[in-house]
Structure to design on (190 residues):
């Protein structure tokens, strides 16, 4: 590499540091990129060229926000580690029950399946894993929407504690082998 090219890269780095201080500081922090191949790749490109594109800078800021949220969550977990979860478990393990439930959320996972979260009449939380985003009940032609209430028969698979929000731990019953029986209406419509 020629001296003028090397000087250009150094100038680019200095300009980048002045214009994008937050991105620069996060990228230069060795601990943040130690186990992150993507950030390591951006760091190498920055060292070689002295600058990064707008989309790469945006990715750095997203990584920074993710890291900060993760740290905050870990701190909250430590503060609330002795908190008792709310709610109650439903049923006994490996037994089938007739239930009246309301769909309260649907979210996808990184493994390619969906998590359906339900609530019973007493406010207890139940969840099930599914290969489909939607729930269909035979006599009801549309997909079940959030707030939709229905009857079903399901097996209690396990009892767990949902600690996704460390400030609000919830006892959760995981159900499977769900047979959707009858659509009762949407509680959100009332």
């Amino acid at each position: 590499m020629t001296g003028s090219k090397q000087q250009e890269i150094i100038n680019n780095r200095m300009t980048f540091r002045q214009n994008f201080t937050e991105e620069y500081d996060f990228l230069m922090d060795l601990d943040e990129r130690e186990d992150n191949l993507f950030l390591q790749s951006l760091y190498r490109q920055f060292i070689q060229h002295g600058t990064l594109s707008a989309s790469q800078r945006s990715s750095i800021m997203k990584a920074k926000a993710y890291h900060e949220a993760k740290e905050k969550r870990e701190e909250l977990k430590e503060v609330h580690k002795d908190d008792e979860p709310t709610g109650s478990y439903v049923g006994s393990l490996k037994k089938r029950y007739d239930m009246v439930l309301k769909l309260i959320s649907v979210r996808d996972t990184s493994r390619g399946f969906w998590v359906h979260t339900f609530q019973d009449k007493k406010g207890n939380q139940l969840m099930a894993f599914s290969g489909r985003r939607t729930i269909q009940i035979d006599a009801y032609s549309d997909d079940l929407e959030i707030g939709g209430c229905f009857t079903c028969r399901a097996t209690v698979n396990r009892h767990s504690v949902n600690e996704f929000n460390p400030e609000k731990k919830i006892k959760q019953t995981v159900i499977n082998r769900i047979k959707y029986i009858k659509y009762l209406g949407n509680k959100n419509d009332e």
